[in-house]
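Changelog note: in this version the structure field was regenerated for every chain. One regenerated record is shown below for reference.
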Amino acid sequence: MDAPHLIDQPAQAWKRAPIEGPETGPLVATWLGRRPYREAWALQKRLAAERADGRIPDQLLLLEHDRVLTLGRQADPSHVLASASDLAARGIELIRVERGGEVTYHGPGQLVAYPIVALSRRRLMVRPLVRALEAAMIETCAAFGVAAAPRDGQPGCWVDVDGAAPRKIGALGIRIERGVSYHGIALNVDPDLSDFDLIDACGMPGVLSTSIAVEAGRAAERPSTDAVRRAADAFATAFATRIGVELAGITLGTD
């Protein structure tokens, strides 16, 4: 089920934008609520193709998913600790996708953000995009009273990074096709952290996963789409600022 405003945006203003000059148009952020993974995956790929053709402006999709595990294109499936029958009993699908990185969990209470950005038109390189995504996760955590930081050599967002027990609070994995990014980040707002026991998160055995709720002293908080939406607002503002792009508000996706 697609969001019509993502289909019907006027194309003429974008299709003739010259790649020789940096683009200055806005970033269109859309809150999609909870969506099945495959539905959002198909939407990302379609929008990335439309962006590469110059038919739409840059997009930022903000949502949460039903429970699912995804493997990066070269990920080692041995980092999935549950059997196929266990996953089936829990109603959790395992899907291999195009992004980089290892196995990742998505589920209720987790903010997922997919930036569909024409890097060539923005004159934005991949590494600065990754840094901007990490910084936006860190700023989102800070907005809810949680101190987080990047960790050298391990993309994503961490708590107590230099302490005795670093904890991962946000994952990152992107794909670039025809100069356009898709896939993105997953930030733990208030998910059921027991689901992370199904995997070696991001391919790291023994890594501890945490959430904004736990770090803020609300460990008993149940997954909440409202809480994810509040985090989405903070993330969108921080990300647009980090890449130096005007944020065209946050609209609501409709079926």
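Spot check on this record: The chain has one domain: 24-252. Residues 114 and 184 are 5 Å apart (CA to CA).
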